[in-house]
Queue: 2 jobs
Job 1
Amino acid sequence: MANKHVLIIGAGLGGLCAAIKLQESGFTFTIVEKLDKVGGTWAQNTYPGVACDVPVSLYQFSFAPSVAWSSTYPQGGEIQDYAEEITDRYQLRPNIHLADEAVSAVWDEDSCTWTLTTQSGKTFTGDALIGALGQLNRPNWPDIPGLEAFEGPKLHSAAWDHSVDMKGKKVGIVGSAASAVQIIPEIAEEAAHLTVFQRSPNWVVPRRDVKTSPQEVALMMTKPDIAMELGAANRKLIYDNADYFFWQVFEWTEEGRAAYTKIATDHLHAQIKDPDMRAQLTPDYPVGCRRILITDDFYPALCRDDVSLVCEGPSSIEAKGARTSDGALHEFDIMVFATGFETTGWRWSVDVVGQNDQHLNAVWADGPEAYLGITIADFPNLFVLYGPNTNLGHNAITFMLERQVEYAVKSLQGLVQKEARAMAPSRAAQTAFNDKLQADLAKTVWADPHCNSWYKTEDGKITQNWSSHTRAYADAVAEVKFEDYELV
Ligand SMILES: Cc1cc2nc3c(=O)[nH]c(=O)nc-3n(C[C@H](O)[C@H](O)[C@H](O)COP(=O)(O)OP(=O)(O)OC[C@H]3O[C@@H](n4cnc5c(N)ncnc54)[C@H](O)[C@@H]3O)c2cc1C
């Protein structure tokens, strides 16, 4: 059965990468995507200021470089355009089923196939299933009493309502992390007054974004091959910098921690002159414990006369605004929630049913586990992209997606060669992989007991992040060790 058909849930960069590489390897595919467009994260997050935090020459796919970037860290809209462009470049559209949510995917033991059913009642059958649902796409609304009572517009960063005009309005924003620091400088320009509710400060390092120069554009137009060659060299430099230098923070060496604490502290001192405000913006946990923020315009925005910083979250919300623990009512016309995504728990929106009627959400109820973050015992021919323990703090997720897709393709090719129909990792291999993973994670900054983040479950198990630099991940998934699998 050389021509395996693969079902893919999700048309974010992961799902698109899978489709491209399967197609190149002679497999057929169908993508089911709940949104009405491809792009995933970048289709969903359209808030003002949304941008990539990894230099794009590294974030774009290694096999599909673009020359259309306006700066080192382009706006989200440009990455969305890139997603649309590669969809056309690789002629994926005829096999993408948009605007229909996958609700269940069931493994059939006899036929060794997956059957996927969508919200609209359509069914698709395939030999393998790729779960490219991403880690970050269900907006998290904070549990603040009275949230519903607010009379004005309430916006979430991950579901932005562009019809709401901030001009001349009093705005409150809850949150001060990765999305918030991109939104705050933009709203500050528009609003009459902006109040920022910061529950706890974050470590911030310089961004030093650079616009694509006219000379670079000229080179792209006249000598695209040379421009591509230089782009590839630049990509390697950025990759090595992230994987060798930036990783040191998370590896938790004394030297790495000291170096990045200094970079962040110097940035704070350079941009915030008021010592009281500096204290308010200094975290009480180690650098790297939560996502390090990369921005040059967040601190200057906080220093504006028309921006106030409140160093706690609202204790309650009322019709006219938000109340803090001192009883003060902060009145607003508009409230913005940059409060991230539902993460831990890994409650997939699809009911995935594997061997012996096992439901993935139940199997993962106490924290998700997979073998290499990709395959799962008792769920044959299921490949997860951006799965458990494959998030990063120091490098591009797209690098991981490419490696995971290569692994899935090699697995399917291996099945064909072996004339086998299905593969699932043995329980022993999966357990051994996770035991080693958790032992390695215990040596990282995320294991610090003072470190609370979305990377961990309530019990403190780190289920989100990979335990090392990405070179180690690439090595781990370079070959499929069929001896770790049960084949049918
Ligand atoms: C604001 C923001 C900024 C980020 N910045 C960076 C960055 O700078 N660098 C970096 O490396 N990473 C960044 N990330 C992480 C980013 O998510 C990944 O880089 C990458 O885009 C993940 O791609 P994905 O395809 O795995 O997931 P997603 O982009 O989340 O795509 C998953 C897709 O699955 C679809 N889907 C989910 N459930 C179903 C269902 N039941 N049926 C059908 N479709 C479904 C979703 O609609 C979505 O389109 C950022 C994330 C966010 C939210």
Job 2
Amino acid sequence: MENLGATMRILRPYPHVFAFYDGRIEGVRAYSPDPNWLDDGAYALGICSYAIVDGTEALVYDTHISLTHARLIRQVLEAQGVASIRVLLSHWHDDHVAGNAVFQDCEIMASAGTLTALTAHRHKMETAAPPIKPLVMPNRILDGDTAIQVGKIPVEIRHVDIHCFDAAVMVLPQSDLLFAGDTLEDPITYVDEPARLKTHLADLARMASWNAGRILPNHGRADIIAAGGYDASFIDATRLYVEKLLSLQGETALAARALQSFAPEIFATGAVTYFAPYENVHRRNVEAVTGQAGAPPSLVSLTSTASPPPECWYGSSATSQRHPRRALPGTSDGDGRPVT
Ligand SMILES: [Zn+2]
């Protein structure tokens, strides 16, 4: 059933922004009927990479879910007259780096944490289904927040600790835009580091203080992205959901609820919309924070504000299908638990 890229849509939310959107199509899978990270963790939910273009220069924000997707992105940009491409990786997860090889002759920027995580997970990512092989590494490691120019467009790359410890987001001050990577998802964030949710909350507050006018996430609704993105209430919805997860201790009835009754307040913001495939994400999130599956993070550590680990704790839910069989060496699921 492999016909990767056939359903990818090219959206133009702004004259200088390309959005390469694929998935969120009911009943359609892109790679395989069997559980795999590409379909279950990205395509079913909707996945979007971006490019900022000015004149002959482009900055690609994530290389999408396959080499085919990445080639299509490069073709579109070159057809626009782009001669110089740089890449910024939002974080190390497979659905954001699978197309790196197509840009291996370009500058590929990432945080030091992204390089560390990719190095640690290289073998698992190269032998996953589908494999990312060879996994091409970033070749420019950013030292903290970094300002660059894409043509005449200033771009501020900022590191945040939301969703994943190594996240890099982008702010375009001239157009009041925030490219959020996976720090924000519609309707809910995907919890990969359940022991560090409190840290993520703190950085959500920091991100909200930037007062971005519009927000473009990597997992969201195509129609909203095409229309220019989400407003600041998107951050509020994410905060409310994370706070609800943090309130789970001892709340077994709450833990059993489906997404809409678990956190009706996030939908009341108007920022996010219920989308049934995220029910699996929510269930897995609840299991991750309550320790119902795999090796449980303790609820004590969940509320700690300990400094970030050099490697992110990786959720060990056996029902996880977003990044199956992926863990850092030495963590509890480092032997690659089979997907169920
Ligand atoms: Zn993602």
